[in-house]
């Protein structure tokens, strides 16, 4: 761990990007909606993301369950592994790793859990039915949230790309060259509206990675220089299928409020029109 002198040198180096309020250091925002310091701070942080990437996948997967289960009752370890595999596959383009959590590498998942136990972040126990459960430890809450913050911005990027996809049901033939810029505009607007929590979720490289993932998963389809929704998502039940994907990804998010973007809407409503009513800027896409 760095000593006090090293920390003070680091804080002095970052004096143009951060400021102290009471006992906390926060990014310095020079004027309204000027978030360049967020980008610079991410630049310094991102090279070490890979070190805790697998642990972050596990933390985000734990939080995708009911919070009471994660903190008190524990979540079944096999279900946690399944969710961790889904998330690791979804955002695999964000980091190059030698060892990655996949359905074929349960030993890597178990090894990361043991490391988290050694760091007193989680504990593993068996319930009365003999089911092995993973429980978050309150003593490691600060470290757990810090580790989760590695992947939560990435998850929000993929979530926003899927929300953007709702506009593609009517606005066909989105130019691939403009796709990342259009999604970035939506993401920045949602950040300003406090609908997403992380400004780093608005970066174009991650948006491009998310687009590639949606093409790989068959949600998007590329035609010449255009990107469209795949034909099955343009059918009568296509919107419900897309919402199901959004909900699945959304459960991994660290939400800025208790609601997701879609929790106010019932299945009986025209979701696309309701979204446009809530966020009129999407109609311009």
Structure description:
With 285 residues, the protein is mostly helical. The chain has 3 domains: 4-47, no CATH class; 49-142, Arc Repressor Mutant, subunit A (Orthogonal Bundle), CATH 1.10.10; 150-284. 49% of the residues lie in helices and 11% in strands. It is built from 11 helices and 8 strands. The strands form 3 sheets. Strands 3-5-4 form a 3-stranded antiparallel beta sheet. Strands 6-8-7 form a 3-stranded antiparallel beta sheet. Residues 276-284 have low confidence and may be disordered.
Q: What attributes does this structure have?
A:
three-stranded antiparallel sheet, Arc Repressor Mutant, subunit A, single chain, 8 strands, 3 domains, 285 residues, globular
In what range is the share of β-strand residues?
A: 5-15%
Stretches with pLDDT under 50, minimum 5 residues: 276-284
What value does the average pLDDT take?
84
Radius of gyration: 20 Å
- End-to-end Cα distance, whole Å, is 47 Å
Q: How are the SSEs ordered, and which strands pair?
A:
Blueprint (H helix, E strand, L loop, with lengths): L3 H10 L4 E4 L2 E4 L8 H10 L7 H11 L3 H7 L1 E2 H14 L15 H13 L3 E5 L5 E5 L4 H25 L8 E2 H17 L11 H13 L3 E4 L2 E4 L8 H13 L20 H8 L7
Antiparallel strand pairs: 1-2, 3-5, 4-5, 6-8, 7-8
Helix pairs in contact: 3-5, 3-7, 7-9, 7-10, 8-9
Provide a concise account of the structure shown:
The protein has a three-stranded antiparallel beta sheet with strand order 3-5-4. The chain has helices spanning 4-13, 36-45, 53-63, 67-73, 77-90, 106-118, 141-165, 176-192, 204-216, 238-250, 271-278, and strands at 18-21, 24-27, 75-76, 122-126, 132-136, 174-175, 220-223, 226-229.
């Amino acid at each position: 761990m760095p000593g006090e002198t090293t920390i003070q040198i680091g804080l002095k180096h970052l004096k143009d990007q951060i400021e102290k309020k009471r006992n906390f250091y926060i990014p310095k925002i020079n004027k309204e909606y000027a978030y360049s310091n967020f980008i610079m701070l991410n630049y310094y942080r991102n090279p070490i993301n890979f070190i805790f990437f697998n642990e972050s996948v596990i933390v985000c997967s734990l939080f995708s369950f009911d919070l009471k289960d994660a903190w008190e009752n524990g979540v079944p370890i096999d279900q946690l592994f399944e969710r961790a595999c889904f998330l690791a596959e979804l955002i695999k383009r964000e980091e190059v790793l030698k060892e990655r959590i996949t359905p074929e590498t349960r030993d890597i998942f178990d090894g990361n859990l043991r490391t988290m136990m050694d760091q007193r972040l989680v504990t593993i126990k068996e319930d009365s039915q003999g089911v092995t459960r993973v429980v978050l430890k309150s003593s490691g809450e600060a470290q757990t949230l810090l580790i989760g913050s590695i992947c939560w911005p990435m998850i929000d990027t993929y979530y926003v790309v899927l929300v953007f996809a709702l506009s593609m049901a009517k606005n066909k033939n989105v130019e691939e060259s403009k796709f990342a810029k259009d999604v970035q505009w939506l993401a920045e607007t949602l950040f300003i509206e406090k609908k997403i929590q992380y400004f780093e979720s608005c970066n174009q490289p991650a948006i491009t990675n998310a687009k590639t993932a949606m093409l790989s998963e068959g949600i998007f389809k590329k035609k010449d220089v255009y990107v469209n929704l795949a034909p099955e998502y343009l059918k009568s039940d296509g919107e419900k299928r897309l919402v199901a994907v959004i909900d699945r990804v959304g459960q991994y998010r660290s939400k800025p409020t208790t609601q997701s973007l879609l929790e106010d809407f019932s299945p009986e409503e025209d979701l696309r029109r309701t979204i446009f009513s809530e966020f009129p800027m999407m109609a311009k896409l």
